[in-house]
Amino acid sequence: MEESQTPVKAEGGGEDKKMKVLVAVEESEGSLYALSWALDNLFTSACDVPDKTESLGRLVLIHAQQQPLQHFMHPVGPCMTDPHHRSFPVLFSTRESHVYREKQTMTKNCMSCLVAAVYATSSVIDSVRRAQEQNSRNLLERATQVCRSKLVEAEMVIVDGDPKEMICQFAEQMQADLLVVGSRGLSKMRRAILGSVSDYCAHHATCPVLIVKPPKGNHP
């Protein structure tokens, strides 16, 4: 993790080397605060010199969206053993599916009723995916508006997969000079269960990582 107050500038000597800054964006106020901090502290001169963002560096905003069914491919209920029941993915987490499978051994009849309520058709799955993609676009558009308000141009990237892994992979792929992530301020229990994107990036990213914490008293 690195902290710097130095604005991003092109290096002299021959061809200018533009610093490539990757900012992770998610649905939290802490994430947008991290973006604003990066704009104010790494691209400050862009506010004073309109249309000069390119001379300062390259800014990329990335949002990683998990596939809706990535963790929901475990069949539950009678479809596991009954060949006459068609198997569909279900919109429940892996952990809940395990719980239901345990319940099945105790109350088969009751389980059959529950199963009928959790199966999802392909149209429902497609609807979930479309809604997720639209939410991702809206989120990045909101972040882009923040950049425009400070006269900084930014590129937008949406990737599919686990946010922790995909952000690190993309940072390596684009050969980022700096990765900026926000801190959501998770409790110790939630951090242990869900994991922390910022912690993971700090340990696995191939480039320097700047973790921006929100001001005290601000709970994203």
Automatic annotation (TrEMBL):
> Lineage of this protein's species?
Eukaryota, Viridiplantae, Streptophyta, Embryophyta, Tracheophyta
Q: What protein name does the entry list?
A: UspA domain-containing protein
Q: Which InterPro entries match?
A: Rossmann-like_a/b/a_fold, Universal_stress_UspA, UspA
Q: Which organism is it from?
A: Musa balbisiana (Banana)
* Domain UspA, first and last residues per copy: 122-213
